[in-house]
Amino acid sequence: MPLSKLETLLETFDMFPDPADRTNLLLDYADQFREVPPEVATRPFPESHHVPQCESDAYIWAMKNPDGTLKLYFAVENPSGVSAKALATILDRTLSGQPARDIATVDCGIVERIFRRNISMGKGMGLMAMVDGVRALAKRALEDKSANGSSTDAE
Amino acid sequence: MSNIDARGYAHPEVLVSTDWVAQHLNDPSIRIVESNEDTLLYASGHVPGAVNVDWTADLNDQLRRDYITREGFEQLMSRIGATKDTTVVFYGDKNNWWACYAFWVFQLFGHSNARVMDGGRIKWEKEKRPLTRDVPSYAKTTYKADDRADAKHRAFRDDVLAHMQAKRQLVDVRSPDEYAGTRLHMPDYPNEGAIRGGHIPGAKSIPWARAINPDDGTFKTADELKKIYCEEKQLSPSQPTIAYCRIGERSSHTWFALKYLLGFESIRNYDGSWTEWGNMVNVPIEK
Lengths: 155, 287
Hints:
The complex is a heterodimer of chains A (155) and B (287). Chain A is mainly alpha-helical and 155 residues long. Chain A has one domain (4-35, 47-143): Sufe protein. Chain: A (Alpha-Beta Complex). Chain A has helices at 4-14, 19-31, 82-95, 100-103, 110-115, 121-143; strands at 58-64, 70-76. The N and C termini of chain A lie far apart (32 Å). Chain B has a five-stranded parallel beta sheet with strand order 1-5-4-2-3. In chain B, α4 packs across α9 (249-261).
C-alpha cells in the first residue's frame, strides 16, 4: 500500500480527538525535529529551498537514494516554529524512503487531519505549503531521470 | 531603546520590559498571561508562571460572534487566580497582536490594572530567557466583574457608518494590498469570507507594523509614532478615532499604541472589521 506509514500515523492522530492529547503528540514530534545536516545544506540556505507562505521560515530538501526513493530534510528558522517542526518530523518519518511517485501524491489535506484545532489561521497555509513543497520536489525527482543518487536539484 | 519611561509615552505604565517581567516572575500580585495565535506555542514553553488565555476559547462567546459575558469573565479571572488587584501582564506571538487583543477585551470589563510586555514572546525568546512547560496552578479566586462596557473601547458597524459619514478619523491597519482591495486577506492567510475588497471610505492606511521596531518587536518611541500617525497621516489625538483590520486583532495593537502610547483621547477598535464590512449589503467601499 503506497504511503502506508503516513496512513498509519494519520490513524494514530485520529485516536486522539482531545486537543490537549493532540498537542502533546505534536510537541513530541516537534521535539524530535532534526535540522538538515551540513553535508546537505548550510546557512544561508538558498531561497530556492524556502517554503513560500510559511511564516516559520521552513526549508526543504529531497535527496535521491540509490534505489530511487527520496530522503527528505528540513530546516525551520523561526524559534517559535513548533508546528512546522512537528510537521517536518512527521513528513520525514513517513515519506523518507518512499518512491518519488508516491510522495508526489500526498494530499495537503493531511495538515488538517494532523493539526485539527491546533491549526491557527496563519499556520495552516504555511503548513500546507510545506506539503506542497515536498510534492513539488518529488515531482521534480520523477522528471529528473538523470540525477540518480544526487540532490533533486531544487535550485 | 529599552528604557520605556524615556520614550515619551502618554501612559508608559501600561508597557513593561522583558527585564521587568523577569524580575517579577515570583511576584504574587502579578499574573503573566500568554495569548497566541498559534495554539501549540504555550504548551511548547512559556514564561515561568504564565497562564494561557486563548483568544477563541477563553475570550469569545462560543455561539454568537461576540465576547464573553460578565459571568464568563469572572470565571476566566477565577481560573487564572486573579483578583481586581492583580496586575495582569500580557505577552504573545505575532508581535503581541493577541496580547493586545486580550488586553483590549479585559478593558471591556474594566480591568485596567493591565500591562503588555514590550516585544512579546519573540523578544523573550531571542534574549534566551527561561521558558517552561510546567503549567502553573493558582488558587481560584472570586472575581466580581463589572458588566461589559463596550461603548468606550469598541465600535459596532452602525457606529462606524456614522463615524464615516461624519468624516471622522478611521485607521485601516491591514496590509496595503488589503486596503487597496487587491486581496481579501493577509498575505499567506486564508480568505476568511469577505465578499468585497477595499476599505471604509476615508480610512487612512497605516499598517499595524509601522508602530514597532522590526528587529525586536518593541514599540517605537512617542516621537517616532507621532511622526507616522500625527504628521505623515495627519491624525489628531483629540479627535474621535476608530481602528479596524480583518477581525480586530491587528487593530487592537494599533488601538493600544494610539490610546496609551500617544494618548489619543477617544479611540475605539472595530472588531467586526473587514470580515463584517466587506460582507455587508449596501455599505460604501473605496478602493
